[in-house]
């Protein structure tokens, strides 16, 4: 158990660099297995999920060199053989499901345990199966293991019933090496979908339309390893922006792509934040007190579900009552009782949290139940009077690089400990 102790109530000020995007990095690491030879990923964050993915690839026979200081991950795939990824590693994260499409495309068969990841609701994989079946694969569940096989994948048309990042990328990965052209309709449009398409193309693939709701993939016989720089993490950027707003701070974030965080910036401006876009940096100045706003999570370019918990924490201190509706995951309000321990006034009715702003939050012991819930509690702790101890910080470490160092660089009084041992 890792804990973070925060002595709150100080405005965050200063400049920090946003890390590479978790949800781009993980499918990119999987995608390296599609290509012969060596691929080099840059701006890779040193987070738990990346280390798990590295170990998954090593288990499948890849040689992986990881330079955490420079954020460079190099994957040599020549030693990879068909096989089943390690059960415990695969079930400890969500993105392990990408190995299904990748191994199927490469070897004609794949077996991958049903993935794990944040417990934020029912997370089916039916659209992944539908997509792979449209490419001619036989796909089935076998006692907790997803299995797929096809003598040769053939291009097909698939309409996704739900806009799913995971299913869009899954089908794109498998289609890259299929015979003929695949059309994916009702796709997710997230910038990390575009990033994976760009990487496949850099390896010699033929993907077009990524970033729109229809992607076309012309399959090729062979892909060759390439270099790629991971885009900045929109959710990390959003979390820091909210920290600035909640603490009446003044924070500059380097390494951001402002267009990728438009939905978050729009809602923060609505809540009263002053935000300056400075090329690949943004400066956020918090108001005396944020104003209540209403928001609904939606696929990109809507407001991201992964920033909902943090925004709800922010709104606990707003003047007025906010309505926050979560449309993607039914269990994404599990952090609410923890915020209530700190003095927040929130009532959850179905998929909506009704947040009545209070004048102040008070430090308290609380527990993180997933990455973003933990991030929300960190924000609340930074703004609260007195000391907050957050248990379960290992969830947060799955997705936030150098959290303690970045908080300290912004002047926060924080200490991370693992079972009584300081974590550097
Ligand atoms: C990914 C992200 C997660 C983020 C989410 C939405 C990774 C590792 N995780 O998760 O951080 O919160 O995108 O931006 O990248 N669905 C189905 N059937 C499917 C697939 C999805 O019903 O086969 C539903 C899900 O339950 C959810 C919605 O579609 O309600 C969107 O899910 P999806 O975009 O696939 O998210 P994940 O891949 O689970």
Automatic annotation (TrEMBL):
InterPro entries: Enolpyruvate_Tfrase_dom (IPR001986), Enolpyruvate_Tfrase_sf (IPR036968), MurA_subfamily (IPR050068), RNA3'P_cycl/enolpyr_Trfase_a/b (IPR013792), UDP_GlcNAc_COvinyl_MurA (IPR005750). One of its GO terms (molecular function) is UDP-N-acetylglucosamine 1-carboxyvinyltransferase activity. It is found in: Cytoplasm. UDP-N-acetyl-alpha-D-glucosamine binds at residues 94, 123-127, 306, 328. Residues 393-420 form a coiled coil. It catalyses: phosphoenolpyruvate + UDP-N-acetyl-alpha-D-glucosamine = UDP-N-acetyl-3-O-(1-carboxyvinyl)-alpha-D-glucosamine + phosphate. The keyword Cell wall biogenesis/degradation applies. Pathway: Cell wall biogenesis; peptidoglycan biosynthesis. Belongs to the EPSP synthase family. MurA subfamily. Cell wall formation. Adds enolpyruvyl to UDP-N-acetylglucosamine. This is UDP-N-acetylglucosamine 1-carboxyvinyltransferase. It comes from Symbiobacterium terraclitae.
